[in-house]
Sequence to fold (331 residues):
Amino acid sequence: MKYIKYILVGILFGIVMTKSEAVSWFRIQEMFRFESFHMYGIIGTAVIFGAIVTFLMKRSKMKNISGEEINIPSKDFSIPRYLIGGTIFGLGWAMTGACPGPMFTLLGHGIWAILIVIASATLGTFVYGAVRNKLPH
Amino acid sequence: MIEFISQPWHWSISGAMIVLVMFLLTWFGGSFGVSSNLRTLCAIGGAGNKISFFNYDWKSQIWNLVFIGGAVIGGFIATTYLMSPEPVQISVSTQAALAEVGISTPQTLSEGTGYAPSEIFGISNLGSVANLIILIVGGFLIGFGTRYAGGCTSGHAISGLSNLQLPSLIAVIGFFIGGLAMTWFILPVILQLS
Fold:
């Protein structure tokens, strides 16, 4: 039963991704072509509101639903890991027009070809896990 | 009410709703990062037996899979009950550029919703070399890159930047280096393959 709240937030997320049109392959093309403010508006608003909410959660030492203090960990610093990994993801994002959240949302739209993307994304993560010791981090 | 929320949402509403999702997941004891689910899928499939990266307590991550399962349902609900009265409205210059590489932007709902182009995602077009490259290689790059970078749009661009993390800014710069190279130079070439 503890999972029901996650299903409900997930449903909200799928609706938000669809109505915001962030799941649209065309919107992603438009964003990378700098021909519309739409996606920048979404991400910009989310970062500004998100920064305020994150600051307030930390500042007020807010507790989560099970009474523990919320801990938002900092990320370890590195340049190659984020720059190379990020660039590889960016290539795939612009190709398929879908980042991982929209990938699953599009499945709900009945875009069955996205199953191929989900399967090969899972394979990509598997291969990363297999070769990660050989990569610069 | 249904009619009101069926319109395409303004970007500011969309951005605020994404923060609501991030807040709720954090309050529930989780975090907002979708790409971790791909690692969990590998772990569930038994990848942890051979590769230590997948040998962890994946059961503690089931909530995230449930969340993303919800997103599938949300996508269904949004396209079944909250359908916009018109397809996604894309800028005219993008439409023109896409037309040159053979992708038509739907003008009416009978031509499509404007979410995924039928030239690439249509089941009857799956046989083309270009589409197989886009779907298979594109997906692979997403799965490999997100785990290498330790997050995707949700984990880095939204959660990480909100927490003022420099690593997330570097990752987002990477997203754009890759995205711009693909959009401007590589994708037009791939789309010319038959």
